[in-house]
Amino acid sequence: MKEYNYLDAAFYDYYSLGVEGDVSFYLEEARKSATTVLEIGCGTGRILLPLAEAGVSVVGLDREPDMLAVLRGKLAQRSVETQRRVELVEADMRRFSLGRQFALIVIPYRAFLHLLTPKDQRQALTCIREHLSEDGRLIFNVFDPNLELLAAQLGPLGAALRKDSEFIHLETGRRVVVWFTGRIDAEQQQLHAYFIFEEMDADGRVVDKIYSPLTLRYVYRYEMRYLLELCGYKVEALYGDFQRGPYHHGGEQIWVARKG
Fold it and tell me: Are residues 107 and 197 in the same domain?
């Protein structure tokens, strides 16, 4: 399923700002590997570009061509040395074949949650394992589901749109207001979010409107551990934040796993 068109992708960087400390964390882990890193779900390059600029060679994989188009535009503005460190691949994390293995594979910013069924998750983890070297590591993060907090943030089922944020469109100079609503499907462990981007002129009139749905499947701590073990991984660490603090409910699940 295609989740982002070009306009969605162009706005992505304005409202998807990551988790505090994640860029530094992934950069530190990439430097430890001292080899080419595979980033799955690289999107528009929020993690990939800082890695490449810091001297890390990166293969960026994403299934959305429009996200990769935005990333290619950014990359073209970087130095020739940075560009040479980057290879981009359009592919699905459930089924890809690069013909080589990596000492480090990362899936930053909850991209794993785009896998909407347990079958999808197993397929992806199995495919990723085939691309890990014998002592290779998989590092990724997902949010730890706190349903009470999520329900409070989303409001009741069918709640009206509410303002999420706003930003200035760098190309047009116009103000863009982001509206949001969503719901939880507890039976399927899915979070259904819905964004509307309204671009306003100087008089406050809406001159353009973009609709952007998003579905994620949240994963509980022990569910994720058993899934990794089922797919042939040995869990090395679980952190609760990007300062390597302990796991805590409702925070972040940052998993470090080796090929078992």
Answer: no
- What is the dihedral angle through the alpha carbons of 29, 32, 35, 37, rounded to the nearest 10 degrees? 0
pLDDT of residue 2: 55
Count: domains in the chain: 2
1 in a structural domain: no
| Domain with 160 in it | 147-217
pLDDT of 1 over the 50 cut: no
The DSSP element (H or E) to which 15 belongs, if any, is helix 6-15
**Domain co-membership, 88 together with 173:** no
Residues 6+ positions from 99 with CB-CB distance below 8 Å: none
Query: What pLDDT shows up at residue 133?
Result: 97
* Alpha helices (H) in 103-211, listed in sequence order: 118-130, 147-154
- Paired with 38 in beta bridges are 59, 105
pLDDT for 134-145, tens place per residue?
A: 999 999 999 999
DSSP string covering 140-209? EEEEPP-HHHHHHHH-STTPPPEEEEEEE-TTT--EEEEEEEEEEETTTTEEEEEEEEEEE-TTS-EEEE
